[in-house]
Amino acid sequence: MVVQNSEITDTDNEQEPNAVLFVCDNTSDPRKRGRRILAQVCATIAQSLLVLDVGMMVVVPTIVIGELHNAKQGQLSLNDSQSSWFASCMLLCQPLGCLLSSYVQGFMGQKSSMLLTNLPHLVAWYLLYSAQSPNILYAASAIMGVGIGFMEAPTLAYIGEISEPHIRSTLATIVNTHVVIGFLLEFTLGWLLPWRIAMLVSCSVPIIAAITISLIPESPIWLLTKGKKYEAMESLRWLRGCVPFEEVSEEFYRLEQYCQASTNDLKTKRETKIENTVRYTEVPDYEYSTVHGETSIIHRLRDFLRAGMLKPLRLVLLYMFFSHAVMLSAMRPYMIGTFNKLRVPISPTTLTVLTAALQFLGALTCICFVRLTGKRALSLVSMVVCSICCLSLGAYAYAILWYSFSMPWIPLLIFCVLYYFINLGISPVPWLLISEVFPNRGRGTAGSLCAAIFYILAFIMGSTWFSLQNLIELHGCFFFYGILGIFGIVYIFICLPETEGKTLAEIEKLFMKKQ
């Protein structure tokens, strides 16, 4: 064990006591290891309440339109055009929130950005509760869209920066699972309560989320980039179970070197080598202060266009495109009509609830297996099965159209398999990748851009479903998206590296070397 005295100073904390740093590792103790994991799980669950709120908002149009579409005279009512606009406002405004987030979180940090997100969420829920005209519903939907887009990047960046490599994917999967839990919760509220009361009850979620997020620390990496090294150490100690300084000294040293390497790379392509056993040398505060906020927009754009950013960006965006195809995202707003056309043997509304439950079950399976199998294997299995399901639905729809063939249990079984395997891999993995594949100084911007394009793709596919169906029939749509899934299998097999268990620095080097 190497011991070295050093001062941890901060320009905002000049009176804080000095700390002695020991380069050591005490994680072999099961109790200490459990305490470290528990602290990270607590931080994850706290921020997951924000994601839960997002899941609830995503299904709001289904509840509101179901109640107000062509409602009785004298009540708030939505015709076909108004219903379409209410559903679309959220998707159209989400990219705006993503772009705002990429700018704000750079100087506010992930924690403050997540706290701020709860304000538009609360306003939107209250507007839905009190709405007396379609225009108020449009405004609430637009505010929800901005809020959803705004929270994507900070939550993804935060989970990637606070977690240890061996549990990072598990924690990120827990976060994404809360979206599906939000679906189930809001549908349950809409089933048990009048829609306005359901909206009012939903107002409590952003309030609770704000309280829980206020109790967790800021990302230690973001604090280091701002030169707040004492606060970064305190944050890391909290996230590792409120342990003494010496128990996180080696990890803190590595984070310093990682942030320093990210700073130095703005000036040179040289990487800083991180060694396992070296004497601790304090990194000057000024090395961090230039990472954010002191470079011109041109320099930031030029830095964003380097290979170390573009390669993971291309990977994530193409992954999202292929996953949208085989998840049948285009069909989602029109699930009930499609189920009717395929003559499923149970109520279409019952099947929508069943598919949500199967997605939740698939997400739980992903949590259990992602550490054992890695993201690459889960992605391939999920993409293969979902592609087969899409092609099978195409064959069945073709048989119905041309041969009057009917075995209603076949599409029911296919849909059950499809929605289970969606959340086993291809739905959560792109968001897991966002939290870890981008370099530190571009992670927030890249995450915001990926989230914005994700929603743009969802809007384009959803808005073209009927046009595509009129052009090539229902079976043609299934075949089209199934064939795209085959291309997705090939792309993932060739281009997706395994990042499970690797540190953020190791992943960054992996993409710098990858051709």
From TrEMBL:
It comes from the Eukaryota. Its main location: membrane. One of its GO terms (cellular component) is plasma membrane. It is found in: Cell membrane. The chain crosses the membrane at residues 37-65, 85-103, 115-131, 137-159, 171-191, 197-216, 312-331, 351-370, 377-403, 409-434, 446-466, 478-496. Keywords: Cell membrane, Membrane, Sugar transport, Transmembrane, Transmembrane helix, Transport. Gene3D superfamilies: MFS general substrate transporter like domains (1.20.1250.20). The keyword Transmembrane applies. One of its GO terms (molecular function) is transmembrane transporter activity. SUPFAM superfamilies: MFS general substrate transporter. It is a multi-pass membrane protein. Residues 39-500 form the Major facilitator superfamily (MFS) profile domain. The keyword Mitochondrion does not apply. InterPro entries: MFS_dom, MFS_sugar_transport-like, MFS_trans_sf, MFS_Trehalose_Transporter, Sugar_transporter_CS. This is Sugar transporter, conserved site,Major facilitator superfamily domain,Major facilitator, sugar.
